[in-house]
Design a protein that fits this description.
- The complex is a heterodimer of chains A (499) and B (149).
- Chain A is mainly alpha-helical.
- Chain A has one domain.
- Chain A is built from 22 helices and 2 strands.
- Chain A has a two-stranded antiparallel sheet with strand order 1-2.
- In chain A, β1 and β2 form a beta hairpin.
- The two termini of chain A are 44 Å apart.
- By secondary structure, chain B is mainly α.
- Classes of the chains: A mainly alpha (499), B mainly alpha (149).
- Chains A and B meet through α8, α9, α17, α18 and α19 of A and α1, α2, α3, α4 and α5 of B.
Chain lengths: 499, 149
């Protein structure tokens, strides 16, 4: 009952006129940018970050969350209409969604994606409201050793559950940690790796880092290929799915939501893993006639619900533990820090209006997306027709202005250029950028917790294994590494990621 | 003879080793302290050693396991884009936002073969109007529009 009271309190915060408008603007801008092909949610959130600087912490977070859902939904629209997944989590949506569009059923595909996302969002909001408080309470009991091990576990899990080579991903985490350590060391006051540059005393700007790896590199990669778009928007069909469509896909939406809610909590899981798993599961258990891959509406409903549920529950580790489970959450933590709030379990007790306001706004945001998207689909389709040669200079402009406005430092723009060069080389060498961003955010926290743990235990390293909770995290991390090393399982993982 | 069978991984491994060595070299200037009282140099060295070993494994495996070649580097998009961003910084510092946006769009347009001159000029005007209108006027962000007089 206490939870319901808190939710009501949160609704009170989120339903203020001011916050409603920010939520709406966030959803709108997020969808607007997310629809543009080749811009994923991370780049979208990073690019739109400056819009929130003038706001207080609660409205800023609410608007950012709106941007994130909007970007997710916009990504699905691109996947269905153009067959270009705006982000990795809508890759599976292209399989059946684009086939539906080719068969003149683009409208119902977009409609069921919106409705599925809305239902998933409503349920996932409740999951967050009920599961986050006990987890935060547990986390308050953690000492530095537990925190350190938890972060190791989180990073390993994020790496194992993502795609690509695990060992390269761990190397990227290390590289990210090292980049995160640049700047003033809080314990000793030493400026590390500053090269005598006064601008580096505060460290490398994380917005510049995120833009370099997710914005600029993506644009450059797109420029290397020819501009190719075949939009199937002229024959939208009716947007509202028929009752028959709803009946067929209802349980797919429910199953997708359940899977997504669970997988979203796992570090590294989030929306990507959720949508893959939901699609596979649907394909396995669906009753005939099975037309997966040829435009089956269940193949759109399940992954779209799952990725929205996962996107939402991935806020749980971020809000309760202060640990990001994916690059978007890393950006959210960065945004909180810019607002002067240290993310962690204390946020819920010290700033309840922030936490419950955000939870309530998740639900409102989903409602807005539904209201916004069904009538506005025509507008989004028009946007898709904008050629890339006009789009990408605009992306450059917003990235550069965005990076500059964080601290009003010209130096950050040069930093963006240099980091983009590094990001481009790593992209060419098939090194995934997501682990690097997670390492960058977690690196300084890990050092801090390790130092504290060593300080209270007189430099005894075995403390990480003698404290039971800490040992569990480390054992789980090692177990995951071993599991992935088993050849048959590794093959399975590769197949799942390829499809 | 030893043959590099996975060039991508080989170069990635070397890259990580180089980064790790660089950080170790720089960290030597900072006190390492002891495990009990960890100095500012200790944690970076620990992470760098881990990174170097991972890099070594990645590079060594490149001799044993087949992998894809390093794809072609197209010089034009990346070089022009980076130049555009750097010039944006220089222009913003000395000439203000309007000139900076113009420089970035004009230079950036060269990165794609498909850009058309007239369209680009139009895009410059639209983006200047948009960024001045939204960022400076609407959001009130402290950005200088014109050069100092």
């Amino acid at each position: 009952m206490e939870t319901l009271g808190n939710l009501a309190f949160g609704l009170g915060v989120a339903l203020s006129w001011q916050n409603l408008i920010y939520c709406f603007v966030g959803c709108f801008l997020g969808t607007l940018v997310g629809v543009l092909p080749g811009i994923g949610p991370v780049a979208t959130v990073a690019m739109l970050l400056p819009f929130t600087f003038g706001l207080g912490p609660a409205p800023a977070l609410i608007m950012l969350a709106g941007i994130y859902y909007g970007a997710q939904y916009g990504g699905s629209t691109t996947a269905i209409l153009v067959n270009i997944p705006g982000e990795s989590s809508s890759v599976v949506t292209t399989l059946d969604g684009h086939q539906m569009a080719r068969r003149g059923r683009a409208g119902p595909a977009l409609g069921i994606a919106a409705i599925g996302s809305f239902i998933a969002g409503c349920i996932a909001t409740l999951v967050v409201a009920f599961f986050a408080p006990p987890l935060a309470e547990l986390a308050l009991k953690f000492g530095p050793a537990e925190y350190f091990s938890l972060m190791v576990f989180g990073l390993i899990a994020a790496v194992v559950l993502a795609r690509g080579s695990v060992i390269k991903a761990i190397a990227m985490v290390c590289f990210g940690i090292l980049l995160g350590l640049v700047g003033t060391d809080v314990n000793s006051g030493t400026i590390r790796f500053g090269f005598g540059q006064p601008e580096l005393t505060d460290g490398i700007g994380f917005v510049a880092l995120a833009m370099a790896f997710f914005g600029i590199t993506d644009v450059v990669a797109n420029l290397e290929h020819k501009d190719r778009t075949d939009v199937y928007g002229d024959r939208l069909g009716r947007v509202l799915p028929s009752w028959e469509d709803m009946r067929v896909s209802f349980w797919s939406i429910m199953r997708g939501t359940a899977l997504g809610s669970i997988l979203g909590i796992l570090p590294g899981g989030g929306a990507l893993l959720a949508s893959f798993a939901a699609y596979m599961f649907e394909k396995k258990i669906a009753k005939p006639p099975r037309t997966f891959g040829e435009g089956d509406i269940r193949g759109v409903a399940a992954p779209e619900s799952a990725n929205n549920a996962g996107a939402q529950t991935s806020f749980i580790p971020m809000l309760t533990l202060g640990i990001p489970s994916n690059p978007t959450m890393a950006l959210m933590i960065g945004a909180l820090m810019i607002q002067g709030i240290a993310p962690g379990p204390q946020v819920m007790t010290e700033r309840p209006e922030l936490f419950w306001g955000l939870v309530a706004s998740m639900w409102i945001g989903n409602l807005m997306l539904l209201v916004l998207n069904l009538p506005l689909i025509g507008l989004w389709v028009q946007l898709l027709a904008v050629p890339y040669r006009l789009l990408y200079p605009a992306i450059f402009v917003f990235c550069c202005i965005g990076v500059f406005t964080v601290d009003a430092k010209i130096f950050d723009i040069y930093m963006l250029a240099s980091l983009s060069a590094v990001a481009y080389v790593l992209f060419k060498l098939d090194c995934e950028p997501a682990p690097l961003i997670l390492g960058f955010i977690l690196g300084p926290m890990m050092e801090e917790q390790m130092r504290r743990a060593m300080m209270i235990n007189f430099g005894d390293v075995t403390i990480f294994l003698s404290r039971p909770i800490s040992a569990c995290f480390l054992i789980a991390a090692v177990a995951m590494m071993l599991l992935i090393a088993i050849p048959s399982l590794r093959a399975k993982r590769e197949v799942a990621m390829q499809e | 003879m030893m043959r590099i069978r996975s060039p991508k991984n080989f170069w990635a491994g070397l890259f990580f080793i180089a980064v790790a060595l660089g950080f170790i070299l720089l960290s030597r200037k900072y006190a390492t302290g002891s495990m009990h009282r960890m100095g500012p140099g200790l944690f970076p060295i620990l992470v760098s050693v881990l990174l170097a070993s991972l890099g070594l494994i990645i590079a060594a495996r490149a001799f044993a396991v087949d992998g894809p070649p390093v794809p072609r580097f197209h010089a034009r998009p990346i070089v022009i884009s980076l130049a555009g961003i750097a010039l944006f910084g220089i222009a913003l510092a000395h000439l203000g936002l309007i000139a900076a946006v113009a420089v970035l769009v004009l230079v950036g347009a060269v990165a794609s073969r498909e850009s058309r001159p007239l369209e680009t000029v139009g895009l410059v005007v639209v983006l200047i109007a948009f960024s001045a209108g939204v960022f400076v006027w609407l959001l009130g962000l402290p950005i200088q529009l014109w050069p100092d007089t």
